[in-house]
Amino acid sequence: MRFSEEQEALVCYRQGETLRIEPWGTDALRVRATRYASFSGNDWALCGKPEGNKGTIQVDTAPIAQGSDEIRRITNGRISCEVNCGGVLSFFRDGTLILRVHFRNYEGTISPLS
């Protein structure tokens, strides 16, 4: 997985998919994914960007099972999301895990959490 920081958002690229996680108001994150070359620019079900906190991107390296796995984190107030190179998203509120979303790849994966 390749990571970048773009306009206060964490952007991840893997297997032709783009994942964008950005601050959205106070203590919230917006997660979008597309297989197109870029996002459409439409907010769809959302009614414009709310006012609130700014996100911060942090890069951590933490051991995961056999070896180490690069983890990227975006934080907005009390909520944060970590993405590992296997595409697993973990959401935390005040440091406590509240949701983990696994990336399913039927061609094999390097993530021990899949």
Task: Report on this structure.
By secondary structure, the chain is mainly beta. It has a single domain (2-101), classed as glycosyl hydrolase (family 31) (Immunoglobulin-like, Sandwich). The protein has no helices and 9 strands. The chain has strands spanning 2-6, 9-14, 17-23, 29-34, 56-63, 68-76, 79-84, 89-93, 96-101. The strands form 2 sheets. It has a 5-stranded antiparallel sheet, with no helix packed on it. The chain has a 4-stranded antiparallel sheet with strand order 1-2-3-4, with no helix packed on it. A hairpin with a 2-residue loop joins strand 6 and strand 7 (79-84). The chain is globular and about 40 Å long. The two termini are 14 Å apart.
Give a quick precis of the structure.
With 114 residues, this protein is mainly beta.
CATH top level class name? Mainly Beta
- Which fold name corresponds to the CATH topology? Immunoglobulin-like
Portion in helices? under 10%
Mean pLDDT: 78
Tell me what portion of residues adopts beta-strand conformation. over 45%
The largest sheet has its strands arranged as 5-6-7-8-9
Spatial separation of the terminal alpha carbons: 14 Å
Cα-atom Rg, whole angstroms?
Answer: 14 Å
List keywords for this structure.
single chain; 114 residues; mainly beta; Immunoglobulin-like; 5-stranded antiparallel beta sheet; 4-stranded antiparallel beta sheet; 0% helix; globular
